[in-house]
């Protein structure tokens, strides 16, 4: 799908991006870690955030679902828009953040599974208890998701009985069970042994092919080349370069993108 920025201006409903980030800014104490962060993500596309350690990738990702609250800027996911710079009552702010959080689901670097719950219970916990959906509906859906990530036969296992790659696949299925509009991945394979990385990236490629809208922080350049519709290269808190993977990775324009790619390739 096109990531052409000309669509940004469009008022046509069919080309309105699913995600729109405008002028995001964030400091931790005196340290400004993000500034002038602007980008859009079209429905059904994959955006990969690349950049050196400390460049702000995770902070951008966490800002999208208000795990990190930016100092200023606007995040809109579909019809939910939060202007972080706007003065609001505490109650209104909390309500807006809760609405934004429901639009996306995050897969973390190290899985955050509930250790004393089975695989199936890990998937059904959020939909039943946080979303108040009926168990009779949620359980069959969870089984379909486990099938999708190749773990249909492990629903009664506990996380400690699974490999790191299997745990991470449960983490992905658990995020999908929340039926988010947007899937966020924060270095989902970086804590895995190298031989387990492929199975997790394989699941992510399947999700991309199914049309999930995804924003992914990763150092897996081959994955980015194969799957990303859009690559954002961050350096020192700004988007230093952006474009299709074929341009940013294979033919970078900026010296700092080239330096980064030389270091990691
Ligand atoms: P990346 O994901 O690209 O490695 P991060 O978004 O994690 O970068 O971090 C960007 C900068 O913000 C770094 O300098 C980091 O030390 C700082 N930072 C991130 N989170 C916090 C925090 N909770 N408190 C203070 N500084 C933070």
UniProtKB/TrEMBL annotation:
<dbReference type="InterPro" id="IPR030679">
    <property type="entry name" value="ABC_ATPase_HisP-typ"/>
</dbReference>
<dbReference type="Pfam" id="PF00005">
    <property type="entry name" value="ABC_tran"/>
</dbReference>
<dbReference type="GO" id="GO:0016887">
    <property type="term" value="F:ATP hydrolysis activity"/>
</dbReference>
<feature type="domain" description="ABC transporter">
    <location>
        <begin position="19"/>
        <end position="261"/>
    </location>
</feature>
<keyword id="KW-1003">Cell membrane</keyword>
<protein>
    <submittedName>
        <fullName>Glutamine ABC transporter ATP-binding protein</fullName>
    </submittedName>
</protein>
<keyword id="KW-0067">ATP-binding</keyword>
<keyword id="KW-0547">Nucleotide-binding</keyword>
<dbReference type="InterPro" id="IPR027417">
    <property type="entry name" value="P-loop_NTPase"/>
</dbReference>
<dbReference type="GO" id="GO:0005886">
    <property type="term" value="C:plasma membrane"/>
</dbReference>
<dbReference type="GO" id="GO:0015424">
    <property type="term" value="F:ABC-type amino acid transporter activity"/>
</dbReference>
<dbReference type="GO" id="GO:0005524">
    <property type="term" value="F:ATP binding"/>
</dbReference>
<keyword id="KW-0813">Transport</keyword>
<dbReference type="InterPro" id="IPR017871">
    <property type="entry name" value="ABC_transporter-like_CS"/>
</dbReference>
<dbReference type="InterPro" id="IPR003593">
    <property type="entry name" value="AAA+_ATPase"/>
</dbReference>
<dbReference type="InterPro" id="IPR003439">
    <property type="entry name" value="ABC_transporter-like_ATP-bd"/>
</dbReference>
<keyword id="KW-0472">Membrane</keyword>
<dbReference type="InterPro" id="IPR050086">
    <property type="entry name" value="MetN_ABC_transporter-like"/>
</dbReference>
């Amino acid at each position: 799908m096109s990531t052409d920025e000309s669509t940004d201006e469009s008022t046509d409903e069919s080309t309105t991006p699913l995600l729109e980030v405008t002028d995001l800014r964030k400091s931790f104490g005196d340290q400004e870690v993000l500034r002038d962060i602007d980008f859009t993500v079209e429905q059904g596309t994959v955006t990969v955030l690349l950049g050196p350690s400390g460049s702000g990738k995770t902070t951008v990702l966490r800002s999208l679902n208000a795990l990190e609250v930016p100092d200023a800027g606007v995040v809109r996911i579909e019809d939910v828009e939060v202007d972080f710079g706007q003065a609001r009552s505490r109650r209104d702010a909390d309500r807006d953040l809760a609405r934004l959080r429901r639009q996306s689901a995050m897969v973390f670097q190290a899985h955050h599974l509930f250790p004393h719950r089975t695989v199936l219970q890990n998937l059904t916990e959020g939909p039943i208890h946080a979303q108040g959906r009926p168990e009779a509906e949620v359980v069959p859906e969870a089984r379909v998701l486990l099938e999708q990530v190749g773990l249909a036969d492990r629903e009664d296992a506990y996380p400690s009985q699974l490999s790191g790659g299997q745990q991470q696949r449960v983490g992905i299925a658990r995020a999908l069970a929340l039926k988010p509009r947007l899937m966020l991945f924060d270095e989902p394979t970086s804590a895995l042994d190298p031989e387990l990385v492929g199975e997790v990236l394989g699941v992510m490629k399947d999700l991309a092919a199914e049309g999930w809208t995804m924003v992914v922080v990763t150092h897996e350049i081959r994955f980015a080349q194969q799957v990303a519709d859009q690559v954002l290269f961050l350096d020192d808190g700004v988007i230093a370069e952006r474009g299709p993977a074929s341009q940013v990775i294979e033919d970078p324009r900026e010296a700092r993108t080239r330096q980064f790619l030389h270091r990691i390739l």
